[in-house]
Amino acid sequence: MNRHNKEKHKSIMKRILIVAAMLCCTIPAFAQTPKVEIFGGYSFNRQGSQNLNKGWIGSVTGNFNKWFGIEGDVSGQYWSEDVSVVTGGTVATGTGTLDILTFRAGPKFSLRSEDSPVTPFAHVLIGGARMTVGGSTNAGGSTVSVSQGANGIAGLAGGGIDIGKGPVAVRMQVDYSVFNISDLFGLSGTSNGVRASAGIVFRIR
């Protein structure tokens, strides 16, 4: 191998090493983006005038790249209150309940960084809701119970942050929530609220 060929060979090897080094530097950046994110946790919802302080939330996100994914969100919120009324010497006790189940989906936008364990995100989701209102009363030894449910449209817009760089992270999020329910005990209308959630995210790469 003459000197010219040796120099040419060294130049080719140098280029290969440079390309390999660039690829090695790029792989961790791709590894930062999970293919799937599974979230579960506790949620608190103030819907209209009711504090729905018993709630849960679960979601699954499929990421197409480091900043865009499609999210499916399911949540349940529950409220109950006991009431006692004295009328004409008779004590009437009652309990009112409100259950809301929502299922929504839509785009999710994330701001990921290799250097930071914090990943902010925002999402806009739309879907459906199932609202069930019930009540029971006991007066003079007699108990009467009523319950009715109705379906409607549910929307949500908000965001939060994930804290953690590994396969498990902590999530906190706050969302504006809206329902439109038709024919619930003859009533129809729109209810606006705020949902605050916290829980654990599992990342699958």
Let me know the largest β-sheet.
8 strands, antiparallel, barrel
Radius of gyration: 27 Å
- Average pLDDT works out at 82
Low-confidence stretches: 26-30
Helical content stands at 10-25%
Task: Offer a concise description of the structure.
With 205 residues, the chain is mainly β. It contains one helix and nine strands; from the N terminus they run αβββββββββ.
What are its keywords?
single chain, mainly beta, 205 residues, Porin, 9 strands
What can you see in these coordinates?
- This protein is mainly β and 205 residues long.
- It has 2 domains: 1-31; 35-204, Porin, CATH 2.40.160.
- The chain is built from 1 helix and 9 strands, in the order H-E-E-E-E-E-E-E-E-E.
- It has one helix spanning 3-31; strands at residues 36-47, 50-52, 54-63, 68-87, 90-110, 118-139, 142-163, 168-184, 187-204.
- The longest helix is centred in the N-terminal third of the chain and has 29 residues, at 3-31.
